[in-house]
Amino acid sequence: MGITIGCVGCGNMGSAILLGLKERLNGQGHVFCGCNRSREKLLPLQERGVELLDDALSLAQRCDVIVLAVKPYQAEAVLESMLPALASGKIVISVAAGLSLACLRTAVQGCCPVVRCMPNTPALVGQGIFAFCFEDSLLRHEDKSLVLGIFSALGLCLELEESSFAAFSALIGAGPAYVFAMMQGLVQAGVSLGFSWKESRRMVTALFAGSAQMAGLSAAPLMQLRDEVCSPGGLTIAGVNHLDRKGLTGILVDAVLAAAVRGREMES
Questions:
Q1: Chosen domain end from 168, 192, 215
Q2: pTM for this model (two decimals)
């Protein structure tokens, strides 16, 4: 039996989640709703069959599962506005960065269970990684199964303790920025070697996609996969030796640890 899924705050991430779920869960009888302060951002959703609602309260009245995708500083006020419509049969899922489960629980005043979720931006193309915290005592086992069943349509879903969220954000939430930075470096190298920007970007994008698929399909250690590309005395080992001398691995580790420190500072 279908349920009604709504999103409050239809910016890039909120819209991606809503449209991704609609496309991938099509035919299961679900209804999808959205609301946003800027009505203009809702028009592309309406064209794809999303029902538009005037405000957060109307959406809460209409929906069984409510995705809260507003800015963190707006979240408490938005939840307060929804209180008259929140009840035990509904679930609020917050993707607001840094907003703790305790803060969410206080905001809904125990009217319904809340779930904390942290996605990363590849969710925009249906290849996201979602961390979920299910530590609200009001959450039933069937609620948890429902949430995981819905979001697994958009990528990999993980259940984490809330204490691990800052670490997840530093490694996976911020991870696309690290990957894009490495891609940009290789694209620039390609241009330096005489390829056009378009050719270089196309090749590098395919390189990362293929390498990621190899890593996902193989149980071999990543260093073994790396070494298998390096012929004795060849050009690859020359490039790898330079990366080792410059400490690429240590730089990446330091970047993630610095992000984790900032993430813990931001937790509320």
A1: 168
A2: 0.90
